[in-house]
Amino acid sequence: MATIKDVAKEAGVSISIVSKAFNNYVDVNEKTRQRIFDIANELNYTPNIVAKNLSSKKQMTVGLISSGVLNNNEKDNNAFDIFKGVYTAVSESQFELSIYLIDSLRQKQKSYAQYCRERNIGGAILQGIRIDDPYYKELIDTNIPCVVLDIMTETENGLIGSVSINNSDASREIAEYLLERNHRDIVIIAGTIETYVNTERMKGVQDAFKANNLELDDKHVLYAQFSEQEAYVLAKEYLQRKQPTAFLCFSDLMAFGVMKAVKEAGLRIPEDISVTGFDDLLLSSFTQPQLTTIGQNFFEIGKLSALLLLDLIENRMDEKHVYAQHLLMERESVKTLLNH
Amino acid sequence: MATIKDVAKEAGVSISIVSKAFNNYVDVNEKTRQRIFDIANELNYTPNIVAKNLSSKKQMTVGLISSGVLNNNEKDNNAFDIFKGVYTAVSESQFELSIYLIDSLRQKQKSYAQYCRERNIGGAILQGIRIDDPYYKELIDTNIPCVVLDIMTETENGLIGSVSINNSDASREIAEYLLERNHRDIVIIAGTIETYVNTERMKGVQDAFKANNLELDDKHVLYAQFSEQEAYVLAKEYLQRKQPTAFLCFSDLMAFGVMKAVKEAGLRIPEDISVTGFDDLLLSSFTQPQLTTIGQNFFEIGKLSALLLLDLIENRMDEKHVYAQHLLMERESVKTLLNH
DNA sequence: CTGTTAGCGCTTTCAG
DNA sequence: CTGAAAGCGCTAACAG
Description:
2 copies of one chain form a homodimer.
Chain A: H1 4-11, H2 15-22, H3 30-43, H4 49-55, E1 61-67, H5 78-91, E2 96-102, H6 112-118, E3 121-127, H7 134-141, E4 146-149, E5 160-165, H8 167-180, E6 186-190, H9 196-211, E7 221-223, H10 228-241, E8 246-249, H11 252-264, E9 274-276, E10 293-296, H12 298-313, E11 321-324, E12 326-329
Parallel strand pairs in A: 1-2, 1-3, 3-4, 4-5, 5-11, 6-7, 6-8, 8-9
Antiparallel strand pairs in A: 10-12
Helix pairs in contact in A: 1-2, 1-3, 2-3, 5-12, 8-9, 10-11
The first copy, chain A, binds a DNA duplex through residues 3-5, 13-20, 23, 27-29, 32, 47-48, 50-58.
């Protein structure tokens, strides 16, 4: 393994010149630089990132801290798309990417701050983290720049950014979509209360109702913890008592559960009951019927968050929250009702 | 940021003792060790992995080099499962994981060997790599231990392992499955010729045919490059001339293409034509009809390959090729024909 | 333009 | 059991 020393010796210069040559310093004789490169090439030399990292006080790696991936529902590979987006953006920068997957099942989980300190991590992207996660708070309170996905942070630390779609807008759109089609008896399958995403989506629904001079009754809001199974159970229960014209679900996964319950109740979608989702999972275009839902581009979200993080690290960000685009994917699970 | 120095000073010992305490050396006074830990805790000290990596000559990180992930078909998230498996195994070891995603579209791609050298990588897992990849050859020729997935390596380097299902066995099984159901007019939708996986699967089919005293006609083998679209085109073409009783496909993706062609030809699956796949993608249980195929546990494959790599690195491997389990997933796309 | 020197934070002999 | 010292491969002043 050739080191900088070998190159320096072979080229008959000091190692600092070699270092400078490789770091594009201008004050290096062009001929010397060329000779150094030739020799480096010949020796198959390439600067050691680990050493570089240690000696330059700069932190050259960013972390992607992701919770719930390992024990995730296999139908949900959004995390993979986010990862690909992050990777793409980071690999085009000078930074290295380090990945830390958390798993509720895994005990010896170390604190995120410690994880970062150990690796000289200069900034992190947090995904799937709950706002009440103590490690999250701890990390935010360090001065490590962070970008969080799908949660809104409440600290006044200048180094926090966040990326998400505009959840309330998206939610309002899909609620209005149902309202325009004359649905009035809508059941909301919400996720986990007190979650940022849930709050925003709730707000969107309420806005849409208000805009139509309607009132959203609490009894029509069911909290299914973003779980397919839970949604299935709640919808099944509900259907034994009443039959709404539509279920508006805060995630596709929950919509799948609802669809199952509806079908088991002997009802047809969308003829008897309409269903909408949120996320646009891969499977959502393959359900029977295909699910009308809100599409998020997770690859893009990953990319945006990495870009935002790099901006934060270099202290030249314009805005701290960036919204990713969303799109109402109109498919087959909603029926237009007759106006009466 | 507390360093080892701070801890040493605070504890009134030399840094070498602190180092030893943290590395579980036995020759450290138990009381000293305890004091060091207490102080470290108090100071929020945690050893810096980068420095550790540099000073100890040992290589503490393994690489996952993965090709074709970024521009992959979105229906295919096997790479993600492999990744999760690798991550799981590596995170339970003392090693760090570094990921390198290649993309045919991406030019400034650096050689795998260089990638490893730059990061002090002590061993790598290669996924989605083609055997004729020049960088692959280069890496294999270094003495860096490697584990390759789904290809068989031909070098005599003692530090190469490989992991895959037993492709010829699996292929034979699914061919026999069709044969047992009295299919005799079978068209093989093969992948890319000269590919390890393809060769093995071909062998399996041939074995099954031979065992039944049948001959496989070259005219019944169509090479679709593992592409859904290509398979669709070839099957469509073929169906204009002849109508086999079954299509045996070397990947689920190609099976999807075939299914589309069959349906477009106005034929029913499996009533008119049976179809089988290979891989068991998530979608394969959601197609109409559900696809009978060979299931691979990619998470397990990832885990196995990481374990094998760690073994190789520590020079205590028993075998160089490990087979992962496969499973014939019997679903709805094959019909049993009447014996005549 | 180039070389010297002092680290980065840690591990690892080698003495004591 | 403990400490001093050399060094991992590189960067970054600071002189010249």
